[in-house]
Every structure is written in structure tokens, then in C-alpha cells.
Specification:
133 residues; alpha+beta; Nuclear Transport Factor 2, Chain: A; six-stranded mixed β-sheet; 23% helix
């Protein structure tokens, strides 16, 4: 299965847009990134699973200043599953107000909708220690 170069570019921009919207607090624009019924899995952080774009927005608003100052997304891999669904892996780096940083892997299911590509499922996996051979 393959997708067009234009679709790949749109998916890369979609993943980047989440960080930009989060960093400026434009959570009301999450409709540009997530499906209405998006599942956001924060189990690895002890926060469980947030279901629905509005619930995700509400959680971000509730965090307030505890949100990272900067979300940086890189190393994006797009693996088509069907003509309208892809699985993506991306690395995330968060910069916090106290100067600490955190590294995660985003495991996403991205679907083609009438409005364009949107994330329908995201699992956030923190990287807490280096590999030890």
C-alpha cells in the first residue's frame, strides 16, 4: 500500500501542527488535528485514556501553565495501512518552564476525513532512561 507524496507532506504537517497549536494555547483549533472521537492514550503517565477532542482540549486547559513551553516533533515515519489510514511514529521533545525536558514517542493512527488527514488515536510513550546494552 502506498500514499502520495502530497499525502505524506500533509501528514507531516498535521503532526507538527499539534505542537504549534498546543504551544500557543489554541486548543479550540484541535479540530484541525484530531477526529471528534479521538483517543489519546496517556496511560504511561498515569493519566489513562482521554476520549474525544473536546475532552482533550479540556485536559490541556486544565493543565494550564503545567503544559510544556514547547512541543517539538521529529523523526516522523509514515506507514500506510489502507488508502485512508496510516500508522505514524514520531519522536517528541518537550521543554518545560523549569528548564527540564522530556522525550516521547508518539504512536498515531491517522485517517483521511472529508476535512483532510486527522489523528484518530495517539499513544504517548515516554522515554525515561537510555538503553543499556
Amino acid at each position: 500500500m502506498s500514499i502520495s507524496t502530497a499525502d505524506r507532506l500533509a501528514i507531516h504537517e498535521l503532526l507538527a501542527l499539534h505542537g504549534h497549536l498546543s504551544d500557543i494555547g489554541a486548543f479550540e483549533r484541535f479540530g484541525e488535528v484530531f477526529t471528534d472521537d479521538a483517543v489519546y492514550d496517556l496511560t504511561a503517565y498515569g493519566a489513562g485514556v482521554v476520549t474525544g477532542r473536546d475532552a482533550l482540549r479540556d485536559m490541556a486547559l486544565q493543565l494550564g501553565d503545567a503544559n510544556p513551553l514547547g512541543h517539538h516533533v521529529s523523526n516522523i515515519i509514515v506507514s500506510p495501512a489502507t488508502a485512508d489510514t496510516v500508522e505514524t511514529l514520531a519522536k517528541g521533545l518537550a521543554v518545560n518552564a523549569d528548564g527540564t525536558t522530556g522525550s516521547v514517542t508518539y504512536e498515531d493512527t491517522v485517517v483521511r476525513t472529508a476535512a483532510g488527514w486527522r489523528i484518530s488515536h495517539r499513544r504517548v510513550v515516554p522515554r525515561r532512561k537510555p538503553l543499556t546494552p
